Amino acid sequence: MRLERNDILKLTGLFFFGIAMGYMEAAPVIYLRELYYPEGFHIISEQSLKVVPIRILLTEAGREIATIIMLISLSILIARKDWLKRFAYFIFTFSIWDITYYLWLYILIKWPESLLANDVLFLIPRPWLGPVIAPILICLSLIFITFLILSSKKEILSLKELLKMWKYLIYLLVAIWVIISAFILWQHRLFYLWNNVIVGIFIGIFTIFLLLRKKQ
User: Fold this and answer.
1) If you ran DSSP here, which 8-state letter would residue 11 be given?
2) C-alpha to C-alpha distance for 190 and 159, rounded to whole angstroms
3) Is the pTM here over 0.90, yes or no?
């Protein structure tokens, strides 16, 4: 996979942006754990979560939404009219942010003790639970997809052209839902979790591969 110099420069900037975002994500999480889990953060299932005031939950959910909006806005500004590149820049920055979030947590509070430690990954529409290694593997897959997209030689994909490929968009939505459902519905059933994650990753990568072949 060979990237253009311009893409390398943009990815470099996004890489450091993602690292900074990872720290900003880790900081409030550390505060919350000090307040609500002073004895240590050990989650087995959703029942292990402590009751948190609704205003705190809403604030945290709002912060998560704001973070995603920031990443989307940045990718739109960087890629201009190419919606496929916008997607690539978004998932790349998201992945660096998520991976370095755990790296910062380990540096600052020595957590997680293991990549199999459970974490609350997201709060919308309900808590997503799963081992730390799961989102890391997903993020590594997204980084691979980023390089797959950026290394492909093709014309700019406008929003109008993208909407014409609605079948591929549906496939991607299916892949996303398969992965999300693993974390939302999982209650200590590792087979179900990994089955969904692996299937979702495969559908996502295969869909991008087909989409890129169609545009060549």
Assistant:
1) H
2) 38
3) no
